[in-house]
Amino acid sequence: MIYRVVIEKGEDFGYVVHCPAIPGCYSQGNTMEEAIENIKDAISGCLSALDRDLISKGKELASIEVAV
To answer: DSSP class of residue 23?
Structure first.
């Protein structure tokens, strides 16, 4: 899947990046490239945690992609 992320120069060092489509999904890196790689891991982790949370609540899940 493709997610839009926002990257900004950090106040103290490096870059801060977040994914607006996933509340609370943030990461950082010393370089812009490192920040992008780190947010990929963060997005994957956030989605996995969401899936586990829904499954633990007994929700029936289906994951599909839709084009907009």
So the answer is: T
Backbone angles phi, psi at 47, to 5 degrees: -65, -40
Neighbours of 2 (CB within 10 A): 4
Which of 16, 11, 23, 22 lies closest to 38 in space, CA to CA? 16
pTM greater than 0.85: no
Name the β-bridge partners of 16: 8, 28
Please give the structure tokens belonging to residue 66.
């839709």
pLDDT tens digits, 7-23: 999 999 999 999 999 99
Residue 28: its H or E element: strand 26-29
Instruction: For the chain, list residues with pLDDT below 70.
Output: 54-55, 57-59, 61, 63-66, 68
